[in-house]
Amino acid sequence: MSKKMLMVDRFGVRLMKGNGNGRLTMATFEKWLNVDQGQYTPPLSALTVICEVGNTVEPLQIFARALGAQVIDEPKIKRLMWAEAYHDARKARNKMKKLEEEL
Question: Is pTM, for the whole model, over 0.90?
Answer without folding.
Answer: no
